[in-house]
Amino acid sequence: MTVTMNSALLLFRIVIGLTMAGHGAQKLFGWFGGSGPVRLRQGFEKQGYQPAWFWVALAIVGELGGGLSFAFGFLTPLGAAGMFGAMVMAARTHWKNGFFLQKGGYEYPLILATASLTIGLIGPGSYALDTLLSIALPEVPVFGVLAGAALLVDLIGIMLTSRASVQPERPSSAS
After folding, report:
1. Could you read off the pLDDT of 109-122 as tens digits, one per residue?
2. Which among 49, 87, 89 has a CA at the least distance from the CA of 67?
3. What is the C-alpha to C-alpha distance for residues 156 and 125, in angstroms, rounded to an integer?
4. What is the spatial distance between Cα 171 and Cα 175, in angstroms, rounded to a whole number?
């Protein structure tokens, strides 16, 4: 790979990864105007995610942990798969709002999911901690298995929230 290609991959990973990590920091610490874990859990409960703390933890790990892993090129297939899983679920959550971001659509999660898929498939390039530390994971197979597992977890979450949204409300027992 050329110096130009490796430099481009480094820039791409840093911008995308730190952007994702910033979203995770909003969720975990409430930084940058974020909700923090308590309000996030309440929002997840309203959407039907049970147990909500489990889904909150997955979102934080996928975004903050995955984003930092992605940015630094450290255990890259793991970080890329975490980001991919988090963004597939985010795209699903925003799906009802249509495509464009200004209406709360899934445009942005789709871009981040595609970026994580791209790095998961081609690797982080030479300017990465994986290269510096001689971590030689079989990138595509590891990413494929982890991304597949993330999709499976996403599908379970989608089924749980879909079932919760179609359950009829119980009539109140007003006497």
Report:
1. 999 999 999 999 99
2. 87
3. 33
4. 12
